[in-house]
Amino acid sequence: MAPRKTPKTSTPPPAPCPACKGTGEVSRPVQVGRKRRTVGLQTGICLDCFGAGELTAD
């Protein structure tokens, strides 16, 4: 019998985004009032990866 061939390696998976840690969402503080008091966090999409959770090849 012929020896088995090793499969060719494919491209590595993309790295997770460091800003959102791969979730696609980031939280920002919400401030209100004249003294700009922080009252909580608002969640939105990550602008580094546009919600994909992965870094692009660029």
Structure notes:
The chain is mostly beta strands. Helices cover 0% and strands 29% of the residues. The protein has a two-stranded antiparallel sheet. The chain is rod-shaped and about 80 Å long.
Describe the structure concisely.
The chain is 0% helix and 29% strand. Strand 1 and strand 2 form a beta hairpin.
Strand order of the largest sheet: 1-2
| Radius of gyration, in angstroms, nearest whole number | 21 Å
Look at the structure and give the mean pLDDT.
86
Shape: rod-shaped
Q: Structural class given helices, strands, pairing? A: mainly beta
- Unreliable residue runs: none
Query: How many helices?
Result: 0
Main sheet characteristics: 2 strands, antiparallel
Give the termini distance in whole angstroms.
45 Å
Estimate the strand proportion. 25-35%
Please bin the fraction of helical residues: under 10%
SSE pattern: EE
Number of E-type strands: 2
Keywords for this entry:
58 residues, mainly beta, 2 strands, two-stranded antiparallel ribbon, single chain, 0% helix
